[in-house]
Amino acid sequence: MDFLIFQVPMLTVQAVLDGLLLGILFALIAYGMALQWGVMNIINIAQGDLVILGGYIAYFMYLYGIHPAWGVIVSPIIMYFVGVIIYKLVINKVVDRDLFISILATFGISILFMQLMNFAFGADVVLANSGYGTTMLFDNSVTLPNSKIFSAFISIVFAIGLVIYMKKSKLGRAIRATAQNARAAKILGVDTEKVYAATFGINAALCGVAGALISITFTIHPYMGLPYTIRSFMIVIVAGLGNLPGVAMSGMGLGVFEEFADYILGTEFRIGSVFLLLVLILVYRRFKLSKKREYLK
Amino acid sequence: MNKNIILYAAILIFGIAAPFVFPAFKVQLSILCILIILAITWNVQGGEMGYNTFGNILFYGLGMYLCASVQVGMFFPLAEWTEGGGEKTFVHTPAQFFQGFAVGLAVAAVVPAIVAGLIGYSILGLRGHYFAICTLGLGVAAGEISGGIEIIGAGQGFTTPPFPKVGSLEARGEFFYFCSFAVLVFTFLAVKAIYSTRFKLVLNAIRDNEDKAEAMGIQTMKYKIIGWMISAFFCGLAGGIMGGLVGYIDSTDVAFDGREMGVFMVLMAILGGKGTLWGPVIGATVFHIFKEGFWTFFLGWQYVALGVLIVVIVIYFPEGIMGWLREKYPERFGEVVDEADRKAQVELK
Q1: Do A259 and A19 touch, CB atoms closer than 8 A?
Q2: Which of A120, A197, A271, B174 is 20 to 30 A from B6 in CA distance terms?
Q3: Among A15-19, A169-173, B74-78, B124-128, which range has the highest average pLDDT?
Q4: What residues of chain B lie within 8 A of the CB of A230, using their CB?
Q5: pLDDT-derived band of residue B84, with 50, 70 and 90 as boundaries?
Q6: pLDDT at B96
Q7: CB atoms A295 and B318 under 8 Å
Q8: Does residue A2 carry a pLDDT above 60?
Q9: B129, B270, B308, best to mutate vs chain A, most A CBs in 10 Å
Q10: Other CB atoms within 10 A of residue B243 CB
Q11: CA–CA min distance B128, chain A (Å)
Q12: How confident is the model at residue A297 (pLDDT cuts 50, 70, 90)?
């Protein structure tokens, strides 16, 4: 085996560190997906496209001379309203219906967003340069861009902030009540329609934060959305709904897996391996459950 | 019964005469045939069995690559062909072309069916949206991975053998049209025959309540796998013909094109009406006419239109054309209508 990663041991450290920092970002996106899946029972295929849209907001701030790190604050605010608008136009009509309807409808939104972004921003791969420089570790054998550390830090801050918000605030309690039992919450005076809109908005805002961080740390492109959706779906089904430490752990695990797949299989198989891993995980869980004569629900 | 025979005869005559009556639309008509095949095969899963798959594109793309690879590989080294400019160095004689195409189509139909059988046990154990997402992942993974395999052209694509000239006769359009039309007729008749047996009832039982069907003693897994294999068989055939028709195979834009074909087949079946024999046929025809009109007049905005179309159809029109007709004229569908009941319903509205 003549893989570079086995010849240079320090590359392993590099891959693990890169993977962990990347995985925290995935976990943030997956947290948004878990939130709306748990509350509204909707699988949002357009999740990744919301991420990319959030990234373009930061990128445009960078183009107009504002430091892209401010996108972390601006992007979620704009994306919150985008999310609420999407909810009002489309999602509220599919909330109580068959899950496949919601998958297909959000698939339509995803195609729409992809193409609109392609028109508006062009088909080039772009990144917002933050100018943070890099940190060298272990005698200069491991390079760590500071922007990655920054993005991981911001993700953790937002995730913790959201957890506290969900626990303490009135809206957070209403969201949790609706997730437990929408009908009972309605009877007790919770305006579930508003809760759903807010949930979708918060999800979009989380995507906005993640997107802004991705545009600083990595690159964005109008067609790169779907892999982010699949990653977050995968993280959620591995961790389970409402299991926040699990989401963080499996997010980081996925990040490390991807970095290793990148080194071992080659970059051209990176996205393919993510999708294949999804299939394998689902099949594994299906066999595990079928021993108990159950199936994934 | 008599009326039906006249209808079928009319469609058959139209189908045979079409390329001569509308010579400019030969390619479009061939694509229409392919689309109808895909919609019919999707309907076996999504409509009759209740397993909404995004992954039938896998068999379509597999068939496309297999047909072209066999057609080339039977006579020439495949690796040199795909390396670039192969179609100029090696030239198929007409006999080689047709022989290769026939064998290629056979392989393109059988291998996807076998693949469906092999993966069926694992994948079909998933239900509902897990199945939908899993098959979506399968289709995209196939596209990404085949885009990295050197021998079938990797990123730069695969040029299928050009159609040979027999003497001075140039009949490329007619050849592919009749191929696709023949496969369409074959598919339709086969599916119609299947739908008239117990098999369809089993599929419907699985759709309506799988646990109950199992409790009734039906081996649901066996039927699900067979249903998927039937779909894969015809999807592979359609893919093989489409590869020859397009003349160029690219992993993510032509073969495993989840963004176009993969969604189209779902959309066409839903537009026409899930779970009916004629629904996919009507849906595909309407969709193709709409699509071509839109693609021509609003070039560049077609995907925007596609996205909007998906959302609108799914939200406002989930029953499709056949479902709408059925609600309007229930007698035509063999449903017994009680006049008093109908009046009461109208009054209620």
Answers
A1: yes
A2: B174
A3: A169-173
A4: 133, 136-137, 140
A5: low
A6: 81
A7: no
A8: no
A9: B129
A10: 29
A11: 7
A12: low
Residue B16 CA: distances (Å) to CA of B13, B35, B282: 5, 18, 19
Contacts of B129 in chain A (CB under 8 A): 43, 99-100, 103
DSSP letter for B22, please. Answer: S
> ∠ CA B188-B286-B37 to the nearest 5 degrees?
25
Closest CA–CA distance from residue B14 to any residue of chain A (Å)? 34
Return the pLDDT at B2. Answer: 67
pLDDT band at B233 (very low <50, low <70, confident <90, very high): very high
A276 touches chain B (CB under 8 A): yes
Pick the CATH number of B27-318 from 3.10.110, 1.10.1740, 1.10.3470, 1.10.150: 1.10.3470
What is the phi/psi pair of residue A105, to 5°? -65, -45
Q: Is A295 on the interface with B (CB under 8 A)?
A: yes
* pLDDT at B348 (0 to 100): 66
Alpha-carbon gap: B314 to the closest alpha carbon of chain A (Å): 6
pLDDT digits (tens, 9 = 90+) for B294-309: 777 777 777 788 888 8
Q: How many residues does chain A have?
A: 297
CA distance B79 to chain A (A): 19
Q: Which comes out higher in pLDDT, residue A234 or A68?
A: A234
- Asked if A110 and B155 come within 8 Å (Cβ–Cβ), the reply is no
Q: For the domain covering A4-269, report its CATH number.
A: 1.10.3470
pLDDT category at B335 given cuts 50, 70, 90 is low
What are the residue ranges spanned by the domains of chain A? 4-269
What's the pTM? 0.85
Nearest to A275 among B126, B129, B137 (CB): B137
Q: Do A272 and B148 touch (CB under 8 A)?
A: yes
Interface check A88 vs B, CB under 8 A: no
What would the DSSP string read from start to end of B184-202?
HHHHHHHHHHHHTSHHHHH
Which pLDDT does position B111 carry in this prediction? Answer: 92
Q: What is the pLDDT of residues B9-25, one digit of tens each?
A: 888 888 787 777 777 77
Q: Which residues of B92-110 are buried (b: 16+ CB within 10 A; e: fewer)?
A: beeebbbebbeebbbbbbb
A279–B310 CB contact, under 8 Å: no
Closest CA to B234 of B108, B65, B144: B108
Chain B positions with Cβ closer than 8 Å to A: 52, 122-123, 125-130, 132-134, 136-138, 140-141, 143-145, 147-148, 154-155, 259, 263, 266, 270, 300-301, 303-304, 306-311, 314-315, 318
Lowest mean pLDDT among A149-158, B169-178, B316-325, B339-348: B339-348
Rounded Cα distance between B19 and B26, Å, is 5
